[in-house]
Amino acid sequence: MISAYTGTQVRAAEQPLLAAGQGDALMQRAAFGLAAAVVGGLRSRGRRLAGTSVVVLAGKGNNGGDGLYAAAFLAARGMRTTAVLTAGAAHPAALAAFERAGGRVRGLTEATLKGLAEEAANAGVVIDAILGTGARGGLRGPAADLVRAVDDARADLPGRGLAVACDLPSGVDADTGVVTGPVLSADLTITFGAAKAGLLADPGADHSGRVEVVPLGIEAHLPAAPVRRLEAADLAALLPDPARRAQKYSRGVLGVVAGSADYPGAAVLACRGALAAGAGMVRYLGPPEATRLVQQACPEVVCSDGPVADTHVQAWLVGPGMGPGDQRQLQRAHDAAASGLPTVADAGALPALPAALGPQVVLTPHAGELAALLARLGQPADRAGVEAGTLAAVRGAAALTGATVLLKGATTLVADPGGTVFSQADGVPWLATAGSGDVLAGIIGALLAQARTGVGRFEKLDIPEPARWAAVAALGAALHGNAGRSASDACAGGPITAGGIADALPHTWGKVSTLSNPGAHSRNSHCLPLR
């Protein structure tokens, strides 16, 4: 599992080492890790080291010092290094080491900006080492103009070089992921000590590329991580694992309240997602138009027309495809969320939910729906505002509602009311297709039902009890993303449908499960690769 922290938390964890006089050692360790990552990145692209041009955009603080020391290491490997001092000054010892290694130093002025921007954009490697974790407010003045010019030039450049961020891209807030001013979008971010929370949340994640952590020896001084990401091995460890004598009721029964005369297909997709994610039984409650379609598409589903109180389940899914005028469905959604059972509530159900919710209720809005929810709770917001600060928005919604909130997006964030956040970015852009969210809701609903019966293994996580519902939702988001990736891979990277995501899920599930039990499936299995 990836654990991510605020910049303040990482700096506080460094203090005991700095107090012990290890400041120079920490900087050297960070710089060596940065240089090694640059070498690895070039080799992965089939590029030779000797003669490759490296341009370091160096600020005047410790972040610039890390970049200059790294460039000195690279110069020793035969690379041609240039440092652009964006503030007219630099870390004295690092600058001296860079010059001793043969590096060329250039000052940034209005007269030199255009030429330096062109040189940096065309370099084999450009390292952004301007602002570190303590910076606020983004780039200003000539540094902002330089970065804007370099990023614009690189966008139109075929076969462009490797862009590397030192600790984090300048202009990305380490704590929140909020972006201020121009940012040089990185192919690779080398972050020091621990991952930063802002690198795992949009829009910061848009600019971070692949994130690699260079250990500094501060791990024992870090607190509980406020942001986490499940990796492949975590997914394998958390997948529900039915006992040998399991039966359909012990494997989890999910009730589904979804669909309408206008959107009957949403009910089908939600049920398909739940069936593919291991629910022992799915019970469906809905209008006749949707019921007929569910019966045709999913004969495994038990359909009825009764109230929530008479339907025996371990968890509920409410909302997909529901319209504002269907009072009976809205009442069912309200009753399900008020039952005390784990409930996943998609967009159509949000206006009908009780005022008081618990963490076992998982809301699954996209940015526009989250903005509307926040506005109803007295926190004026719009879609653009949510997308500009996803981490703060999802945390705020969880705190205000008392529910677990999953904000769908390229990076999906799941927050529990206590502030713990899971960040998953497992999918592909093709997942943005009609019905994809209905399948996701079905997956999460099935996992909630299995967690309720004890089939899920979430007690393995070292997190507070309420946050385990967020972990269930994060597992669902990760499975959904990987199933979408597998479906796209099966089409040579092409577009997918929501039904294709559900079809790919059992294959993805089987592939994930072999990570914890390699002998569980035949090596000749046709499961698609998890990437």
Query: What's the rounded overall pLDDT mean?
Result: 93
Number of beta strands: 19
Helix content class: 25-40%
Main pleated-sheet profile: 12 strands, mixed
Instruction: Report low-confidence residues grouped into runs of 5 or more.
Output: 518-531
Taken as a percent bin, the fraction of beta residues is: 15-25%
Q: What structural class do you assign from the helix and strand content? A: alpha/beta
Q: State the shape.
A: elongated
Q: Give the terminus-to-terminus CA distance.
A: 16 Å
Going across the biggest sheet, name each strand in turn. Answer: 8-1-10-19-18-17-16-15-14-11-12-13
Our Rg estimate from Cα atoms comes to 25 Å
How many helical elements? 16
Topology, pairings included?
Elements: E1 2-5, H1 7-19, H2 23-44, E2 53-58, H3 62-75, E3 80-85, H4 92-100, E4 104-107, H5 113-122, E5 125-129, H6 141-155, E6 162-166, E7 188-192, E8 195-196, E9 210-214, E10 227-229, H7 232-238, E11 253-257, H8 264-276, E12 281-285, H9 288-297, E13 302-304, E14 315-318, H10 327-337, E15 343-345, E16 361-363, H11 367-376, H12 383-388, H13 390-401, E17 404-407, E18 412-415, E19 421-424, H14 436-453, H15 467-490, H16 498-513
Parallel strand pairs: 1-8, 2-3, 2-5, 3-4, 5-6, 6-7, 7-9, 10-19, 11-12, 11-14, 12-13, 14-15, 15-16, 16-17
Antiparallel strand pairs: 1-10, 17-18, 18-19
Summarize the structure.
The protein is of the alpha/beta class and 531 residues long. It is 40% helix and 15% strand. The chain is elongated and about 80 Å long.
